[in-house]
Amino acid sequence: MKREPLVNAALFLSLPAVALWAVSTDEPFTITLATRTAILALAGVGLNIALGQGGLVSLGHAAFFGLGGYAMGVLASHAQTQTPILEWPVLIEGATSMPLIWLVAMAVSALAALGIGALSLRTSGVYFIMITLAFGQMLYYFAISWPAYGGEDGLSIHLRNSFPGLNTLDPIQFFGLCFVLLCAALLLSARLKRSPFGLALNAARQNPLRVRAVGVRPFSLRLTAFVISGVITGLAGALFADLNRFVSPSMLSWHTSGEIIVFVLLGGVGRLFGPVAGAGLYILLEQLLDGVSDYWQVFLGALLLTVVLIARGGLIGALAGSEVAHD
Amino acid sequence: MSLLRLSGVTAFYGASQALFGVDLDLREGEAAALLGRNGMGKTTTIHTIFGAPRARSGEIEFDGRDITSTPTHLIARLGIGLTPEGRRCFPNLTVEENLRAAARPGPWTMASVCDLFPRLAERAGQAAATLSGGEQQMLAIARALTTNPKLLVLDEATEGLAPLMRKEIWASVRRLKAEAGLSMLIVDKSLRELAEIADRAFILQRGQTVWTGDIAAIDDDLKASLLGV
């Protein structure tokens, strides 16, 4: 029980350590990998609030990831071509300022999560999975068939967006930005878990009727959790698109939803640092095994099976013991 | 003034009828016992008050409001605190987390329930699943209290506990009545202990209220015919 904070700290510090080591040995690609890990972990931290704390298996989180990405793409592409997004009734211009883009990405994701959540949370279990999947796929096909923003080809921007006081084109500075956001999300997630809201959410996952009998409505708890979860994943999407300077419908596809679930599962469902461990492991496997075989995901599949069948607590569970910390 | 009033309440589990007309009238500040043999509808009556299952006919009124079709969580928010049969704590939350998860502002806080059940303070950081049965029972009562209810419903709060633990819980319930003046609806098998606390009693038989009156007025005939003791 006491080992988990240690494991968390080690995992957590390894990310900036790798990035700084890469700076000193001048390996920008490694910094990019660390940045990608931080961003994917951020998406996982978002999903973990719904999946780990709320027990909501959403197979539609790519919707928020992709919407965040498209928020970045649309704003930045309009800014670069200097054409307004909307002229009437109000003039809306594009933007290249990251804080503004993040806000838009989070607001769009919040709205989408509110709508999707309000409808899908009327169901549970396998129906919830299918409905979230359906919403995600709806957005995916919409993005493919809407030519204004690249359709199937996606949308690329020439320059990474700017952040006041930083040079975001410098890989380590952009990594720092993503890492700080990841820290903020982890902090929020930890606070949430210990708050009365988080405790009631946790209790509602186990027994909704019991929660109702003490005067709390599970639907409101879950919807709130779903929206917070979607907002964080949307922010990750905006960062991911900025990292690649490219956004495409594949960010919205159900493969992406599945991958985010895999991060959470690999790391340990409901563990605060589970998504960080999962995303790290995923990127590591991708890099190590991709050289061995094009079909490296076969190994990933085997690992996932092992985790699901034998080591339910994921990587964090294996390292820190199966007891979930109550600190 | 009556705090909780049930009139002619019927309820069904699927196709089979469980309540055939329950009448009950609990006054503010009163402790009442709900009695009857096993399977006569005591727990179903309590569940029906909370809307699960819903009353098919009849009326349930709490604190001057009709709650017959109010959603369960709102019924609890109106001020009915339930200590369910079988305790039903949230097993993988700690004692303190169990109490914080549903707490609403009022005189009952973590500190005041720990004053009532000092053991809970000792076990604050322990997962509820690892507590003894009696401690879980205390936690279930404490959880109901921290929602700061107007009415506390205790369903079989001493069932299956060791004699010492039962004594401790009865002592706490007596304190609730004497010091806090809390209105209570108590289901229990132990008539002797109930008689020290409750003012009145309602006896159920086959899902109907068949006797209402002063708990002291329950004589041996009544015990033999309706309570089986």
Notable features of this structure?
heterodimer, A: 327 residues, mainly alpha, ABC transporter involved in vitamin B12 uptake, BtuC, two-stranded antiparallel ribbon, 13 helices, 1% strand, B: 229 residues, alpha/beta, Rossmann fold, six-stranded mixed beta sheet, four-stranded antiparallel beta sheet, globular
What does this molecule look like?
The complex is a heterodimer of chains A (327) and B (229). Chain A is mostly helical and 327 residues long. Chain A has one domain: ABC transporter involved in vitamin B12 uptake, BtuC, CATH 1.10.3470. Helices cover 71% and strands 1% of the residues of chain A. Chain A has 13 helices and 2 strands, in the order H-H-H-H-H-E-H-H-H-H-E-H-H-H-H. Chain A has helices at residues 3-24, 28-53, 62-81, 98-120, 125-145, 171-194, 196-206, 208-213, 218-244, 254-267, 274-290, 297-309, 314-320, and strands at 155-156, 246-247. In chain A, strands 1-2 form a two-stranded antiparallel ribbon. In chain A, helix 2 packs parallel to helix 6 and helix 2 (28-53) crosses helix 11 (274-290). The longest helix of chain A has 27 residues, at 218-244. Chain B is α/β, with parallel strands linked by helices and 229 residues long. Chain B has one domain: P-loop containing nucleotide triphosphate hydrolases (Rossmann fold, 3-Layer(aba) Sandwich). The relative contact order of chain B is 0.19. Classes of the chains: A mainly alpha (327), B alpha/beta (229).
Short overview:
The complex is a heterodimer of chains A (327) and B (229). Chain A contains 13 helices and two strands. Chain A has 327 residues and is mainly α.
Helix/strand/pairing category of chain A: mainly alpha
CATH homology superfamily of chain B: P-loop containing nucleotide triphosphate hydrolases
Segments of chain B where pLDDT lies below 50 for 5+ residues? none
In spatial order, strands of the major sheet of chain B run 6-7-8-3-9-10
CATH topology of chain B: Rossmann fold
